[in-house]
Design brief:
mainly alpha, 8 helices, about 70% helix, elongated
Length: about 170
C-alpha cells in the first residue's frame, strides 16, 4: 500500500473496515457521521501508509488509533459533544450490543460497577471514553487541573477493573 497498490488498500478495507467502524460508532453514535469518518480514516491510511513502522506498533493498533482520533476530531469539529442524560443512554456506547444475553450481563455488571465509582470520576470516564472529551475539556468542566483529571480517570478505571474482576 505504501507504494500505491490499490489492491492492497481494497484488501485492507475488506479485512478491517467492520472493526474500525465499530470503534468509530462507539464514539459517534450517528451512523451517517460514522460512515463519513470511516471514509476519512481510509484516506488517512492511504496517505500515511508509507510512514507506518511495524516496529513501533502492530498494524491493528495503528489503524485503531487513526480511527479513534478521526472520530474524536469529528466530534470536536462539529461541536457535537453531548452532555450525558440521566436516563443512562451512555451505557449503550460503553458495551457492545452485538451478542444478546452476554452483552446484557456485561452491561448490567458495568452499570453496577459504575455505581461504585465516585460521581466526578464516573462523569469523567463516561465523557472521555463515550463522548470523546479531552482531558482539557474535562478539566474546564470540573474546574480542576488536567493532572487531577488524569488521576480521576486512572482511579476510575482501576475501580471499574477491580469491580468487574470480582463480578
Amino acid at each position: 500500500m505504501a507504494e500505491g497498490d490499490r489492491t492492497a488498500l481494497r484488501a485492507l478495507y475488506a479485512a478491517t473496515a467492520p472493526k474500525l467502524f465499530g470503534i468509530i460508532l462507539r464514539i459517534l453514535p450517528d451512523r451517517s457521521a460514522a460512515e463519513d469518518v470511516l471514509q476519512e480514516v481510509f484516506v488517512r491510511i492511504w496517505q500515511r501508509a508509507g510512514t507506518y513502522d511495524s516496529k513501533t506498533a502492530p498494524s491493528h493498533i495503528w489503524l485503531s488509533a487513526i480511527a479513534r482520533h478521526k472520530a474524536i476530531d469529528w466530534l470536536r469539529q462539529d461541536k457535537a459533544v453531548r452532555l450525558i442524560q440521566a436516563d443512562q443512554s451512555w451505557l449503550e456506547c460503553l458495551a457492545d450490543t452485538g451478542d444478546g444475553e452476554t452483552d446484557l450481563a456485561r452491561r448490567d455488571a458495568l452499570a453496577r460497577c459504575l455505581g461504585f465509582v465516585e460521581p466526578d470520576h464516573r462523569d469523567c470516564l463516561i465523557l472521555a471514553y463515550c463522548e470523546g472529551w479531552s482531558r482539557e475539556e474535562l478539566a474546564a468542566r470540573h474546574a480542576r487541573p488536567v493532572n487531577t483529571i488524569k488521576t480521576w480517570l486512572r482511579r476510575g478505571l482501576l475501580s471499574l477493573r477491580d469491580c468487574l474482576e470480582t463480578a
